[in-house]
Amino acid sequence: MTRAVLTLNAGSSSIKFSLYELENGGGIAAEPVLSGQIDGIGVKAHIKAKDDKGKKLDDVDIPLQGDAESQHHEALEFLISWLHDHEKGWKIVAVGHRVVHGGERYSRPMKLDDNIIEHLTRLIPLAPLHQPHNLDGVDALRTMMPEVPQVACFDTAFHRTQAPVAQAFALPRWITGEGVKRYGFHGLSYEYIARVLPDYSPRANGRVVVAHLGNGASMCGMVDRKSQVSTMGFTAVEGLMMGTRTGALDPGVMLYLMENKGMDVKALTKLLYKESGLLGVSGISPDMRTLLASDKPEAKEAVDLFCYRVVRELGSLAAAIGGIDALVFTGGIGEHAAEVRRRVCLQASWLGISIDESANALHANRISEPRSTVDVLVIPTNEEWMIARHTATLLNL
Ligand SMILES: Nc1ncnc2c1ncn2[C@@H]1O[C@H](COP(=O)(O)OP(=O)(O)O)[C@@H](O)[C@H]1O
Ligand SMILES: CC(=O)OP(=O)(O)O
Ligand SMILES: [Mg+2]
User: I want to staple 392 with a disulfide (CB 3.0 to 4.6 A). Which of 210, 219, 237, 397 is the partner?
Assistant: First the structure.
């Protein structure tokens, strides 16, 4: 049987999975032999999976009940039994997991044991939409294959190269000293983009802003393909407006809600993480596809605000890294929503961005005109490949 690495990537609205064969000389194959995702968790869950020839193995809705929380667990159970039915012919020798928060302690992939899992469990309050689902996946796979080593790959790790000033909040020193600082997330996605960027642009090692726009959304400013600054912070609720998250919010709004509306931590957590963003502003859906297809004014307002926030943060990140040579769009929205990219690029023309609208409509890799002083690129991210590679490297497979 061929040896393979399984990857699991639980996002806020999706669970993505892949199976990568190990190559004879060591290392993992470029393409997975099996891959897919359950997306739309919390709205309308759907599984899509394909084999190495691109043959569709599944493409159906899955009826999940309850709130997004319980749907996530149900989706995982569905996936485990799906994998049981489809992983024949390969010997899974390792499992790699995306774990969103590594805190201060973990800045590189780690082979999981009870101690590390216990520490990661303590970080759940810092990433309530992700960490519980990531650890749920670890738990399920450890039960399913107890002999197989499991590796955690952290979303925060890529950003640990940032200068102290980029990580700091203007808080008293004793709070900062306890690790309350900006960590940044989507690190596996940014690491993948940084790795492949030279294949797409001669400016790869310059000042690059990558916009990872998905259900969770953030942007990262890099120089020399290393993270310098991120819109996400201590938690993944900071920065851009997202599917259900506020992004940056005047802290005074929280004080106001506590003082005048009697909201406690639980109510505020729900508001900031689950009821705001595209969903809160539109009152319709957290899903960009639905909002772009809607002619309701509230849907338009939500999309307008989403794009406006990206444009503002783009200016901020370009300022932080001293200018911009390339802008990369990635993530579910960044890769597929041409309208969002179009609006962002038009509003950011002052930066020297000039978009080629027909290339953009076709989702070409390069969507800037030759006269643009900024290379604008659309690059599909691949967190799964990054996880598989880290897992194989750490375990010497
Ligand atoms: N064809 C499309 N057009 C517009 N938006 C899309 C398209 N496909 C996916 N999206 C959006 O991408 C988002 C999900 O992104 P993704 O990166 O998969 O999420 P997650 O953060 O859960 O990993 C959703 O808002 C979805 O509407
Ligand atoms: C960190 C984060 O927001 O992840 P996702 O985009 O997968 O929700
Ligand atoms: Mg994601």
Answer: 397
User: Is the pLDDT score of 87 beyond 80?
Assistant: no
User: 2-161+386-394 with 201-378: one CATH topology?
Assistant: yes
Q: What is the mean pLDDT of residues 92-97?
A: 96
**Average pLDDT value for the chain:** 95
Whether the CB-CB separation of 272 and 303 falls below 8 Å is answered with: no
Does residue 277 line the site of ligand 1, with CB under 6 A? no
Ligand 1 center from residue 81 Cα (angstroms): 25
Whole-complex ipTM: 0.98
Distance from residue 258's CA to the centre of ligand 3 (Å): 31
Report d(CA 29, CA 260) in Å as an integer: 57
* 215 annotated among ligand-binding-site residues: yes
| 131, 101 contact by CB (below 8 A) | yes
379 three-class SS: coil
CB 245 within 8 A of CB 276: yes
Tell me yes or no: is domain 2-161+386-394 CATH 3.40.50.20.
no
Least confident of 87-96, 261-270, 323-332: 87-96
68 pLDDT exceeds 80?
no
Ligand 1 atom closest to the Cα of residue 9 is 23
Q: How far, in Å, from the CA of 90 to the mean position of ligand 1?
A: 30
CATH number of 201-378: 3.30.420.40
Query: Residue ranges per domain, the chain?
Result: 2-161+386-394, 201-378
Query: Which residues lie near ion ligand 3 (Cβ < 5 Å)?
Result: 11, 214
- 2 touches 120 (CB < 8 A): no
- Nearest protein CA to atom 2 of ligand 2, as residue: 216
d(CA 337, CA 351): 21
Residue 22, annotated ligand binder?
no
Q: Give tens-digit pLDDT for 220-246.
A: 999 999 999 999 999 999 999 999 999
For ligand 2, atom 3, name the residue with the nearest CA.
216
- Annotated binding residue 16: yes
How confident is the model at residue 1, as a pLDDT?
A: 78
